[in-house]
């Protein structure tokens, strides 16, 4: 009886049934947990995945190191992750779910805010520095490489000297809020293309749009 009850409450440790590793993808949206961060620029990764979940009709559940949701498209299995480790420890969650689901690095996509791009501009890169972003810095340190796919979502840089933290942890202005739904549609299309067409075709089609 004890073992039966234990099995009922055992935490699910694997979500993707696919056995072909090249058909499995990990899409990571970076952000900070907590209501006070929900509508901030720094949480664009979380918001992008929330929009994707609405479009693809899947839900998230809270598990080890984050909230996870899955969906399938044309034979590919996708696991979406919103780390619960706070931004500067994101690498721990990314590494754990890569290992847990046996997802190769080339099939990982990390969504992050970027102050070096104008608001709403999206850019996909296969490698690069962390650019001072603490989430990317930790992922780079944990994975021991700068060669991983990152989806940079521009949030602009409308702040004065020494005000960067206040800006990225600040909420969207009214004009930005009106434009976000269309940007999320574009972001969802980029993710779909990344999964189905690959990173190079996706970069050619979406970068700078």
TrEMBL record:
This protein's UniProt keywords: Hydrolase, RNA-binding, tRNA-binding
GO function term, MF aspect, one: peptidyl-tRNA hydrolase activity
Enzyme Commission (EC) number: 3.1.1.29
A Pfam family recorded for this sequence: Pept_tRNA_hydro
InterPro entries found in the cross-reference section: Pept_tRNA_hydro (IPR001328), Pept_tRNA_hydro_CS (IPR018171), Pept_tRNA_hydro_sf (IPR036416)
UniProt KW RNA-binding keyword: yes
Keyword Phosphoprotein set for record: no
The protein's enzyme class: hydrolase
Name of this protein: peptidyl-tRNA hydrolase
Taxonomic lineage: unclassified sequences, metagenomes, ecological metagenomes
